[in-house]
Amino acid sequence: MGYYLRPIMIVRIRCINPFRRIASDMLEEFIDVVTRDHFDDISRLNAALRLSGEGALVPHVPPHTFVGDIYNIKENDCILIIGINPLLWLDPRFEKANIELPTDCLKNFRISGDLNDLKDWFDFQNQYFLRDERNDRHFKKIAKLVGPRYFPQTYKQGDYQKTLFRHVVEVDVVQYFSRKAQINSKKLADLYQHDPALIANRNLIKAIIEKIKPKWIQVNGKTGWEAIQQILVDGDMELINNFDDKGSEIMVGSTNISGSNIPVLMHKFIGGMSGANSLIQREQVLDSWDKWLGRY
Fold first, then answer.
1. Labelling 54: which of 45, 91, 100, 177 has CA 20 to 30 A away?
2. Is the overall model pTM greater than 0.90, yes or no?
3. Angle CA 75–199–99, to nearest 5
4. Who's near 4: CB < 8 A, 6+ residues apart?
5. Domain-by-domain residue ranges, the chain?
6. Residue ranges of the chain with pLDDT lower than 50?
């Protein structure tokens, strides 16, 4: 047994199945994120980032930790996608899967300390890319970006769900939901130096990298560039704009968190106003990435 102290509670944890497989890899970091006082954290972050209206982080949705088949995904045959922050849907399916389910799991876990009370939540996250509640519009773009070129055997005939499920794990640089992403990148990077909620999220991201050992890390959205460079990347990064197009420029570097060097790709948000929106721009992003990988 182990004990995790919180200002408002003591949680007793019994490490039994089905979570024995993750206990030594990322369990402590996961618990540190999900058992925080989210109302306090979100109030502080909204004030520090000056977020309001549809850009404000919402306190009634438990934090996003990861989605993807972390149990079975193969080392060096997957990509870790790092987004900005999770999208708040106004939809009954979203409420059931992202509010009611994790809230009930956390409530029961806080009472019992039994990891089995988190099982349904973990199963949802693990099977996310096969579930009807997935953010299909967003993740379909990711699959179409990386699937044909890097995972053609899985993506054949446009099977984007299988591509995501077998080859992608996703996290966000900010773990709390909002209707719109309106986060200032400089302020976010500054907060990552001292804010306890963001530090907990950083530790979870690092633990996931160590567990899945991705082929590379791919940061989707310029909002996260500065923060991720600060918390993950070793040394300087290189800005590449081979096609004289701001939409398809990328930043590249590497990290050795998992014990070996992992390339890091940062590109503009796919589908954003100033991002790589056309098929040509998206191919340019990958062409620049492949060219840099060739000399990495």
1. 100
2. yes
3. 80
4. 10, 11, 13, 28, 31, 32, 35
5. 2-294
6. 1-16, 23
